[in-house]
Specification:
By secondary structure, the protein is mostly beta strands. The chain is built from no helices and eleven strands. It has strands at 4-7, 10-12, 18-24, 33-39, 46-52, 57-59, 67-72, 77-82, 91-99, 107-110, 114-118. The termini are far apart.
Amino acid sequence: QVQLVESGGGLVQPGGSLRLSCAASRSIFTINRMGWYRQAPGKQRALLATITNGGITNYAESAKGRFTISRDIIKNTVYLQMNSLKPEDTAVYYCNALLTLLGRSTEDYWGQGTQVTVSS
C-alpha cells in the first residue's frame, strides 16, 4: 500500500513556473516507478514523466524541455518542476506509484490530484 499526497498546484500566468510535490507514505526505493500524469478537461489522462527506483527518468514528448521530474529520497518525495507554462498545460496533475510485488499483480496508486491553471 502507498498513500500519495500532492501539493503545489495553483493559478499561474503563461510563461510562469510551478513545482509540484508528491509525498509517499513509504520509501520510494520500495516503489518500482513513480510518475506524473495530467488530465485536461474532456481528455484522457496522459503520462508526462516517470522515474524508477534506480533514478532513471523518462519523459513524454509534451514534457521534454520544460518539465523535470526529480526525487528526494530522504523525504520520500517526487517533484515535477514545470517551466514556461502555457494555457494548454491547464489540467489536473496526478502522482502515480507503480509496484510490482512478489506473488501479486502489478499495483497502481494515485494521489488525489492537484489543479494547475495557466491563464492571464
